[in-house]
UniProtKB/TrEMBL annotation:
Residues 100-111 have a biased composition (Basic and acidic residues). InterPro entries: Ribosomal_mS33. Residues 78-111 are annotated as: Disordered. This is Small ribosomal subunit protein mS33. It comes from Macrolepiota fuliginosa MF-IS2.
Amino acid sequence: MNALPWLSATGKRLFALNQVRAEVFQTAFNPTSVRTGAKYLRRRLRGPAMVNYYPPTLNMAHIVRRYPELEMVNDEEQTRLEDIEIKKKRGKATPKKARTPGESRRAGKKR
């Protein structure tokens, strides 16, 4: 109690009472009223409710991968692959990834 010289005798008793009350009822003792965020930590989590709000989406790619015995074709993927082949023939495709530092474009540049 000597650490709080500004409190009067009744103030010190109230301080001690609040300390004991916090221990008995298992609440946070916060005499300086510092913001702790305890109100938000006590709240229920929103995540599970938000995830369950929307139904699962059906994706053609997932269905094709999961059930290969159905021999389904993903039209979007097929057109994408065809577009890549056309771009490769015209020389407009993305460059190949360098496997070694010597193959990279930076290796040929002067520093």
